């Protein structure tokens, strides 16, 4: 049975199916905040919508107590002053359970159609969400708009299309007939019903609340599950706006809006998440964050299917290059982008202590390290331009980590505080780059130093660099690995190291593509082959275990005539 919203968005769905089959570039959402695409007043309207939320209670018509919560502070230096309706977890679970009945009965085309309509409405709110992401995460506006808006929407659509790709092959019924020789055949009518797992729990993160939150949210919805969205206390607003839009669409489509609810909390929410995650009604959990919390969920939320993206140590191996300047510029951009506060940002840069080969002759270790450090310093030399790349530090803990890391080795590029020209209280720090040695500093560089902290590490050889990269990815987790070499044999060895480490590999990036970027519909982000991620976030495995198929069968008259 079809659904009007499925029909409305079927063309987009078909194009998305083609995209995941061909893996080429495609996106229905413009990543540029152009007035020609979003409207002449879209930016001003979105900023005004964001500001209208400040210093007041966020309006959300869902089951709630009479209390409010919320303590978000913009990394650009001011409190948001937004209060959110406080909800009781048991009340939300009960509401989701009641909403599940009609939502399940509506079937796959309704789930897909409603999900796509929600996504379409979210796209219209890209500027409002972009400003909300900016002032909760510290991303500069362009990145907040792109990563928090269209790129996050791409990831949501990716989840929906993978769900549909699995669901579309399940028939509603079938006629089954088994020949019995001269006797009448055995005949049965079989009915197949897609049954969602139940209620999902999406645990948002403070750095990419939509980009990391949307895949789980939309994978749950597109497979017929209800969802409780629990944002990080430091980044509630982007997901609150998302939930508000989802509830509006559900209500207009004739469904109980409690298919999607928001569980906002204060920073000190104690054991709430742990208690909620172990509730028998919670059947799916999506989490992005620390290894400690992610591992706890995997080990303790036994009643749920748990998907996690955790901390990792991303690495770069430099063996040989044509042009060290272009290599250094590309690496410097990756280190500076959003101050290294990305799950894909590189941390360890391995260089043979005897130096590398270049098209212009040998280059010493010190010269390679100096080229990278110099490229970082040049990139952030103009504060007015640098802040549009660096953004702001999301929380004070990261600045404390920078101070701690400074003691680990020889400083190649010092982390400096910059004044933001528009926000006097912004917490802006340039990248810290240190020199370490593979022989003596493994205890330091085998752990994640989240934030604008990276190391140029002297190794005995490229072979040791690749061994370290593969072993650290396999043992400690990683989402990205990059290699620079003009030697095909080294590149093949790097490919093998990436397989051993279960990590995505980038080769000789010197242009407009950077190792911390991931393209929806093409790149398989978070392969799940190492401890940083326990499930793929860009393929059928991410959606297939969110539903079951229940069948019934009954004898019927055969159609075939025995010989």
From TrEMBL:
**GO MF annotations in UniProt:** L-glutamate gamma-semialdehyde dehydrogenase activity
Q: Does the keyword Ion transport apply?
A: no
| SUPFAM superfamilies (alphabetical) | ALDH-like
For this UniProt record, the keywords arranged alphabetically read as follows: NAD, Oxidoreductase
Record the organism.
Answer: Paraburkholderia sartisoli
Concerning Pfam families, the annotation shows: Aldedh
Choose one Gene Ontology CC annotation of this protein and give it. Answer: cytoplasmic side of plasma membrane
Q: What is the lineage of its organism?
A: Bacteria, Pseudomonadati, Pseudomonadota, Betaproteobacteria, Burkholderiales
> Its domain of life?
Bacteria
* Biological-process GO terms, alphabetical: L-proline catabolic process to L-glutamate
- What protein name applies here? Phenylacetic acid degradation protein paaN
Question: Which parts of the sequence belong to the Aldehyde dehydrogenase domain?
Answer: 86-501
């Amino acid at each position: 049975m079809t659904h009007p919203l499925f029909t409305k968005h079927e063309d987009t769905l078909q194009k998305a199916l083609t995209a995941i089959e061909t893996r080429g570039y495609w996106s229905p959402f413009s990543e540029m905040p152009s007035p020609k695409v979003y409207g002449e007043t879209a930016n001003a309207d979105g900023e005004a919508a964001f500001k209208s939320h400040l210093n007041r209670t966020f309006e959300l018509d869902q089951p709630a107590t009479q209390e409010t919560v919320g303590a978000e502070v913009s990394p650009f230096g001011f409190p948001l002053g937004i209060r959110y309706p406080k909800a009781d977890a048991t009340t939300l679970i009960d509401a989701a359970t009641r909403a599940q009945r009609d939502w399940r009965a509506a079937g796959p085309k309704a789930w897909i159609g409603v999900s796509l309509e929600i996504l379409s409405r979210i796209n219209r709110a890209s500027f409002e969400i972009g400003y909300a992401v900016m002032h909760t995460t510290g991303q500069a506006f362009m990145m907040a708009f792109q990563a928090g808006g269209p790129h996050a929407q791409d990831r949501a659509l990716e989840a929906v299309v993978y769900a549909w790709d699995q669901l579309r092959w399940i028939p509603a019924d079938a006629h089954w007939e088994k020949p019995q020789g001269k006797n009448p055949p055995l005949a049965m009518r079989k009915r197949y019903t897609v049954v969602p797992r139940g209620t999902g729990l999406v645990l948002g993160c403070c750095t990419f609340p939509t980009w990391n939150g949307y895949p789980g949210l939309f994978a749950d919805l597109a497979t017929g599950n209800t969802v409780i969205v629990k944002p990080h206390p430091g980044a509630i607003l982007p997901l609150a706006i998302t939930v508000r839009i989802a509830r509006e669409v559900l209500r207009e489509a004739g469904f109980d809006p409690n298919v999607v609810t928001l569980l906002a909390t204060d920073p000190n929410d104690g054991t709430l998440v742990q208690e909620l995650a172990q509730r028998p009604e919670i059947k799916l959990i999506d989490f992005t964050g620390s290894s400690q919390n992610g591992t706890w969920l995997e080990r303790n939320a036994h009643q749920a299917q748990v998907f996690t993206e955790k901390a990792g140590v991303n690495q770069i191996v430099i063996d040989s290059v044509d042009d060290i300047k272009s290599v250094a510029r590309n690496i410097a951009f990756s280190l500076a982008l959003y101050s290294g506060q990305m799950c894909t940002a590189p941390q360890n840069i391995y260089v043979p202590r005897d130096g590398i080969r270049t098209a212009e002759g040998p280059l010493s270790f010190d010269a390679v390290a100096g080229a990278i450090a110099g490229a970082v310093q040049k990139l952030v030399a103009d504060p007015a331009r640098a802040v549009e790349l660096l953004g702001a530090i999301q929380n004070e803990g990261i600045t404390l980590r920078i101070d701690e890391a400074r003691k680990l080795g020889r400083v190649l590029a010092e982390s400096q505080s910059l004044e933001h020209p528009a926000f006097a209280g912004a917490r802006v720090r340039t990248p810290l780059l240190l020199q370490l040695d593979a022989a003596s500093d493994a205890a330091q560089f085998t752990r994640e130093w989240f934030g604008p902290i990276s190391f140029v590490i002297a190794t005995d050889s490229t072979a040791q660099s690749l061994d370290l990269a593969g072993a650290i990815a396999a043992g400690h987790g990683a989402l990205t690995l990059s290699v620079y070499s003009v030697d095909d044999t080294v590149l093949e060895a790097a490919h093998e190291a990436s397989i051993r480490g279960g990590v995505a590999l980038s080769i000789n990036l010197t242009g407009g593509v950077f190792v911390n970027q991931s393209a929806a519909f093409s790149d398989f982000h978070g392969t799940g082959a190492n401890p940083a991620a326990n499930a793929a976030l860009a393929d059928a495995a991410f959606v297939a275990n969110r539903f079951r198929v229940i069948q019934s069968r009954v004898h019927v008259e055969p159609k075939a005539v025995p010989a």
